[in-house]
Amino acid sequence: MQELKGVGVAMVTPFNDTGAIDYPALENLIELYVEQGIDFLVVLGTTAEVVTLSPEEKNEILRSVVNYNRDRLPLVAGMGGNNTAVLVKEIKDTNLDGYSAILSVCPYYNRPNQEGIFQHFSAVAAASPLPVVLYNVPSRTAASIANETTLRLIKAHKNIIGIKDASADMALGAALIEAAPEHFLILSGDDATALNLCEIGGHGVISVIAGALPKQFSTLIHHGLKGEAASAQVLQEQISPMIDLLFEEGNPTGLKALLAHQNRCINHLRLPLVKASTSLQNRIKVGYSKLV
């Protein structure tokens, strides 16, 4: 398996003005990330508006990314859901050739207890032909993967190799770093606190802002991973206002506004998401002008 450390981009799904997937824009984004120092790509995650994509569209995106990437960066496929049986079937039925791992979110809406979360991910691990990265994002799922459950899953399933932790809870992250085996990947899923996690032993980040500022955010995180705290902090202070703006009206609302300003894709989202307010778009433009 290719290494999933450093900075991974949570990729958007670009749409054209009719709402169809803009494959040329998708290819151009991959070229940008390869050129500007991104370490791996995450496809069909939350940022991709995956819940609004049809099964046919998801499969076409998975195959297109493999073709556009040409084995240059490791690829991770987002495969999650809150119906375990349906998700298991989807994993078994999906062509995952060219991917290094799957990223699977904690079941949402159902609010399972920790035993339910353990059983769900056990079924995912048993079905997956690839290593599995857990995804803990309690702000979206209304359920959180406890460290004890993560450690239990690591022990039970050798193909569960890491976690994307978007809780922004440094105490939770620090405790997991202390308790988990050395080989287990602990990746931030929160841009605002990613540097902090890396500085206490985390292995990197799956990032939203790196989707529009790949070089800047990659440089920041790599400084943190190398223990170059002063250099990292300077960059953190510069980029923090933009992180706040990108999440002000949700993700990928802010990110697509910035990508559109950069002429990398059209500012189109699928309902129930809508594009950023005019006020936010204007503030993103002003914030971006200070970073370039």
- Kindly identify the CATH topology: TIM Barrel
Find the count of extended strands (DSSP E, 2+ residues).
8
What level of helicity do the residues show?
A: 40-55%
Sequence stretches where pLDDT stays below 50 over 5 or more residues: none
Could you state the order of secondary-structure elements as H and E? EHEHEHEHEHHEHEHEHHHH
Structural class: alpha/beta
CATH arch. level architecture: Alpha-Beta Barrel
Strand order of the biggest β-sheet: 1-2-3-4-5-6-7-8
Sketch the major β-sheet: 8 strands, parallel, barrel
Instruction: Give the number of domains.
Output: 1
Q: How many helices in DSSP terms?
A: 12
Beta-strand residue fraction: 5-15%
Question: Could you tell me the radius of gyration in angstroms?
Answer: 18 Å
CATH homologous superfamily placement: Aldolase class I
Just give the CATH class. Answer: Alpha Beta
**Overall pLDDT score:** 97
Large-scale geometry: globular
- First-to-last CA distance: 36 Å
Describe this structure in words.
With 292 residues, this protein is an alpha/beta fold. The chain has a single domain (6-227), classed as TIM Barrel (Alpha-Beta Barrel). The chain is 46% helix and 13% strand. The protein contains twelve helices and eight strands. Strands 1-2-3-4-5-6-7-8 form an eight-stranded parallel barrel, surrounded by five helices. Helix 8 (194-199) links the parallel strand 7 and strand 8. Helix 3 runs parallel beside helix 4, helix 9 (214-225) packs across helix 10 and helix 10 (229-247) packs antiparallel against helix 12 (278-289). The two termini are 36 Å apart. The mean pLDDT is 97.
